Amino acid sequence: MSHLRHTEQRKRFRAILNGSECLSPASVYDPLSARIAESVGYKLGILAGSVSSNTTLAAPDLIVLTLTDFADQVRRMMRVSDLSLLVDADHGYGNALNVMRTVQELEHAGVSAMSIEDTSLPIRFGQAEGQDELISVEEMTGKLKAAVAARRDPSTVIAGRTAALKVEGTEKTVERVKVYAACGVDCIFIIGVETAEQVKAVRDASKLPVIVGPGKTTATREEFAKAGARVLLQGHQPVAAACKALREVYAHLHGGGASGDLKDKIASAKEMDALVFAEDYKKYLRDFMR
User: Fold this and answer.
1) Domains with residue ranges and CATH for the chain
2) Omega prior to 60 cis, within 30 of 0
């Protein structure tokens, strides 16, 4: 029955894309963080490649993460989460054939939406640090067509992601997204956005809803919504916040501090029980372990 639940989650994501509001997802990285996000009201989540690399490998976002690493992390999260999960599938972990495998694995793991990007990854020998390079439009076309062909659940959302705003400017970005839209993707994911007008240009060119990555902009969520954006990423502060909280608690205890001093900094036993389905497991013990 899990595949039916995932389809409902995907339909919810599609409803967001077809709506008029612009929503921001919770940045999550494991089953517990996903449960916490749900507990405060989130219906939409995101697992970024950078966050996955940070949390599974303690490594930077340099494509040392494998598809298996990523899909396993997603699968553990979606086993217990009702979030509609958007994932950053990077470059699809290789060529167009690898993209097909990526779509199949991530769809099976329970994602609602995934983005495939046109950044040339991993970085090549001698590439200038911090400078993105793009693959050709032709290669990206093959990847996106392969992604659309590989999905088994038609409700799964495929997003064509481009870094062209950062590399080539708005005019070239518009040219790219027209081609990407013709591949059958469901939305366009753009990074490096500075103005709502750039979002509108992409929306007008592609006729598709837009996902906006974090960027240097002063535009409001309402302005982005009017321009055609339906999802606005806000960065991954929850992960950094968790790291800081862990460091502070570890330092307190390692330095001889009393555990009782942490009462106001930690979740209560009741809160933890709710997050980990403790009552359900108590029932399982009564029903099956006598």
Assistant:
1) 2-236 (3.20.20.60), 242-288 (no CATH)
2) no
